[in-house]
Design goal:
The complex is a heterodimer of chains A (83) and B (107). Chain A has 83 residues and is an all-alpha fold. Chain A has one domain (3-82). Chain A is 86% helix and 0% strand. Chain A has 4 helices and no strands. The mean pLDDT of chain A is 91. Chain B is mostly helical. Chain B has one domain (2-100). In chain B, helix 1 (2-26) runs antiparallel to helix 2 (30-55). The relative contact order of chain B is 0.12. The chains are: A mainly alpha (83), B mainly alpha (107). The A-B interface holds A 3-4, 7, 10-11, 14, 17-18, 20-21, 26-29, 31-33, 35-36, 39-40, 42-43, 46-47, 49-50, 55-56, 58-59, 61-62, 65-66, 69, 72-73, 76-77, 79-80, 83 and B 6-7, 10-11, 13-14, 17-18, 20-22, 24-25, 30, 33-34, 36-37, 40-41, 43-44, 47-48, 51, 54-55, 58-60, 63-64, 66-67, 70-71, 74-75, 77-78, 81-82, 84-86, 88-89.
Chain lengths: 83, 107
């Protein structure tokens, strides 16, 4: 277990408060939690690719970053109109 | 020397992300929470720079730097969009209201 994997594990724990925000807060609090969880998950994927020395896996982080941006944008626009 | 630099950047990035998560959870409302979701992207940039320092500009270095820069740029957009959605949700419209006493320059 090297420093990258330790950092990834620590950041995985930080996903729990985000989940708590989504479950317990209002709709828009949940949206903030979702955005935060997206950033954290992207960094975790990055750290796993570096930690296991699987360099091509960093594409996963790149793709996830773009998809997470589009998803949060769609959620924000939808919540603006429908609620 | 290089390893120490990597460790400092990595720890700084992870701690920044943990603190911003903590802040976002503890704040009372959406607008206060949004102040903490922005710095998380800066933490991601620090982690990306740590990977670049370790691996130099290789396959993983270039892409991790791209991810970090993208997260910072998209984070700004997401913060704005979320604040706007929250205002529309609360007030029905995002524009400044007269009774809020916020001075704006007329262009």
């Amino acid at each position: 277990m090297n420093q990258w994997l330790v950092a990834a594990t620590v950041l995985l724990v930080a996903l729990l408060p985000c989940a708590a925000l989504c479950v317990r807060g209002g709709v828009l609090d949940g949206l903030v939690g979702l955005e935060l969880a997206g950033v954290i998950t992207t960094v975790v994927l990055l750290l796993i690719a570096e930690g296991f020395q699987r360099q091509p896996f960093v594409d996963l982080a790149l793709v996830f970053a773009v998809l997470q941006f589009g998803g949060s944008l769609a959620f924000a626009r939808m919540l603006e109109r429908r609620l | 020397m290089r390893e120490a630099f990597v460790a400092v950047l990595l720890v700084a990035g992870v701690v920044l992300m943990l603190l911003s998560t903590l802040g976002a959870v503890l704040m009372p409302n959406v607008f206060a929470r949004l102040h903490y979701s922005g710095p998380a992207a800066l933490g991601a940039l620090l982690v990306a720079v740590a990977i670049v320092v370790r691996e130099s500009f290789s396959l993983i270095g270039d892409k991790s730097l791209a991810v970090g820069v993208f997260l910072v740029l998209s984070g700004a957009v997401l913060t704005h969009v979320t604040a706007r959605a929250a205002r529309v949700h609360e007030l029905g419209d995002w524009r400044i209201r007269r009774e809020e006493k916020i001075e704006v320059e007329e262009s």
